[in-house]
Write a structure and sequence with these properties.
With about 160 residues, this protein is mainly α. It has helices at about 5-30, 50-65, 75-95, 100-125, 125-130, 135-155. The protein is elongated.
């Protein structure tokens, strides 16, 4: 497959996952989420879509930079990337659709660990790919603190 085809697929995968998760997130944001306690530093709802879109594009580019390489470390790195994407996807359902704030916290902590492991795995193949995931883990760190605060306020 030509590299530009891989790039398009690599970016489309996280964007598609984010779009589906975003659909279910939006349903919860407009209903249940308005009824629960949130910390004063909870960002406005409009900020999440552009931030996540940017992060998904960066995740896709990072994935592409690893996917196109001929490296024995590629398979485990892609496996970690895929697993973190699954946990990313599940968090929206757990939190916004099923309203399980505590289980969402468990999920996002596991997600954070998998992102960190993915960064280390990607760094063995492409330093640029690893650095492209730093804003992602930074945002997930913030989201983890926010998830914890919401859990604490509503338990």
């Amino acid at each position: 497959m030509k590299n530009y085809g891989k790039l398009i697929i690599a970016i489309a995968i996280p964007l598609a996952v984010g779009a589906v998760a975003g659909f279910f997130t939006q349903q919860g944001v407009n209903t249940w989420f308005t009824t629960i306690q949130k910390p004063s530093w909870n960002p406005p709802s409009w900020i999440f879509a552009p931030v996540w879109t940017t992060l998904y594009v960066m995740m896709g580019i990072a994935f592409y930079l690893v996917w196109k390489q001929d490296s024995t470390a590629k398979r485990p790195a892609i496996t970690l990337w895929s697993l973190q994407l699954v946990l990313n996807f599940l968090w929206s359902f757990i939190f916004f659709y099923w309203h399980h704030i505590g289980w969402a916290l468990v999920d996002i902590i596991c997600l954070w660990v998998l992102i960190l492991l993915t960064i280390f795995a990607f760094a063995r193949i492409s330093k640029t790919a690893a650095w492209l995931l730093v804003p992602y883990i930074s945002w997930v760190t913030f989201a983890t603190l926010l998830n914890y605060a919401i859990y604490h306020l509503n338990s």
